[in-house]
Amino acid sequence: MRTVVIDGPTNVRVDTRPDPVLPGPDGAIVEVSAAGICGSDLHFYEADFPLAEPIALGHEAVGTVVEIGRQVRTVKVHDQVMVSSVAGCGNCPGCTTRDPVMCHKGFQIFGGGVLAGAQADLLAVPAADFQLLKIPDGISTEQALLLTDNLATGWAAAQRADIPLGGTVAVMGLGAVGLCALRSALFQGAAKVFAVDRVDGRLDRAAAWGATPVKAPAVEAILAATSGRGADAVIDAVATDASMTDALNAVRPGGTVSVVGVHDLQPFPLNALGCLIRSITLRMTTAPVQRTWPELIPLLASGRLDVDGIFTTTLPLDAAAKGYAIAAARNGDDVKILLTP
Ligand SMILES: [Zn+2]
Ligand SMILES: [Zn+2]
User: Fold this and answer.
1) Which end of the chain is more exposed for a tag (fewer CB within 10 A), N or C?
2) What family is this (predicted)?
3) Which ligand number lies closest to the CA of residue 180?
4) DSSP element (H, E) containing 176
């Protein structure tokens, strides 16, 4: 089978490897029909995370179940399924919360060097009853792919931002996660969302979705628009030192900064005294993917929550290198790239 691998900065290629075998009696093999390129994949591409050896990339997949172990109960062969990007054992007190991050055995993310990569023809999925969900009626392929990671992340970012009804929120970074967070913040009660990015096309897209565009760096503009107090909540979907510092400076006293961007491996220089004096809450979240599905699926299927238009670009799997180059350029026209094996 083909799988997208990276063996050094910007060096993405499509490799041929043996087909995967079932990862135990609770596992399944999924034939991938669509896989996303995620902003967090770019950390490998841009050398933020050094590679000891080549790894298979990708953690967002939907596809068809082609094989199941004898213990699998909730999906069967031929089912169209989505695969949670974050995997738990599915069988411990932590996993009963449906948040794989709480797994007592430690969670894994596909395409991070331990589990296989989702940008491939076939994907081996452990604990399939926990990681897989048959795609419900009324959910499109693109919606299902967003449910595997980016929308779950943006939704959880807004939930953990303590947004007061009628409140003011700033969202840093208008890639796929930031746009999902923007929509989620409005849905969860924000009256005004400042959408912050450096790229004009992304600011335009956010404005069309009901946000107030602000060109980064945005602290002064947000303070000026809030009588000097700051936003009730700031969601940081970038998580560089600069964006996190801006987020902490743009939130009001007593407000919450909710970080879901993936920082690099270096420590962040936190102004602890400034946060203490202003009673800031700082939350950081890896997507509780499976826990969000019972909330998000009915909202998407009913049309009440709309995240259409986030996938802008579709390429065949063999063009993965081009897809990564487009994603890394972070231009205004291409937000999120879908690969079709
Ligand atoms: Zn991701
Ligand atoms: Zn577990």
Assistant:
1) N
2) Belongs to the zinc-containing alcohol dehydrogenase family.
3) 1
4) helix 176-187
For residue 88, the ligand closest to its alpha carbon is: 2
- Nearest Cα neighbor of 336 from 115, 204, 121, 145 is 145
pLDDT tens-place string over residues 223-282: 999 999 999 999 999 999 999 999 999 999 999 999 999 999 999 999 999 999 999 999
In order, the DSSP letters of 13-58 are EEEE-PPP--SSTT-EEEEEEEEEE-GGGHHHHTTSS--SS-EE--
User: b/e map of 140-176 (b: 16 or more CB within 10 Å)?
Assistant: ebbbbbbbbbbbbbbbbbbbbbbbeeebbbbbbbbbb
Closest listed ligand to the CA of 41? 1
Whole-number CA gyration radius for the chain = 20
Please tell me the number of the ligand nearest to residue 91's CA: 2
Distance of CA 40 from the midpoint of ligand 1 (Å) = 5
Three-class SS of residue 175? coil
> Rounded to an integer, what distance in angstroms lies between the CA atom of residue 319 and that of residue 315?
6
In angstroms, what is the span from residue 38 Cα to ligand 1's centroid? Answer: 5
* Ligand 1 centroid to residue 41 C-alpha, Å: 7
Measured in Å, residue 264 CA sits from the centre of ligand 2 at 26
Distance CA 214, CA 206 (A): 10
Residues of the chain predicted below pLDDT 70: none
Cα(36) to centroid of ligand 1, in Å?
8
CA 95 to ligand 2 center in whole angstroms = 4
Ligand nearest to the CA of 130: 2
What burial class does residue 240 get, using C-beta atoms within 10 Å of its C-beta: 0-12 exposed, 13-18 middle, 19+ buried?
Answer: middle
Q: How far apart are CA 115 and CA 230, in angstroms?
A: 41
